[in-house]
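Team,

Forwarding the record for the chain on the shared tracking sheet. I've put the sequence and predicted structure together so nobody has to dig through attachments.
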Amino acid sequence: QGHAIASALAALGARVTLVSGPVALPDPLGLTTVHVETAREMQTAVEAALPADIAICAAAVGDWRIATEAGQKIKKDGGAPPALALAENPDILAGIAAPGPNRPRLVIGFAAETEKLAEHATAKRARKGCDWLVANNVGGTGIMGGSENEVLLLTEAGNEHWARMNKQAVAEKLAAKIGDYFK
């Protein structure tokens, strides 16, 4: 969804920097793309792109990472499996949304939920401090990894349900709402 949103905003004339994790999508035309592999690399790239008027955090960044990378293959030795310690990844959305001189005027987060969509999305929007939250139910709906999306947009003005449509249409609708916000 992030690539489609970046393209839709660029088509409206916005100067866009897309920070992209590992995906099998071509780089959109008309914008700057920064490729990253890890959550920490993504955080660094996002912070380097600030200040900005808008930040849209659409990536599904993992909450956890391996605390210490082995640097080589971990071989089987016939014994117990290795113990893998985990470390928490940075919370990129909360970091961007925090008050400060580089906070964008509009911070939009995404939430992929499997149950209680409105309840969990409302709590996430408050917890992260973002202005808008785009939530979708990915529990058995074919949304995650598919070509369509059905979203609940949460803003200070209330909630809007957007019926199922292709991801490009969702991106264009969101880009239009962002344009209206800045008028």
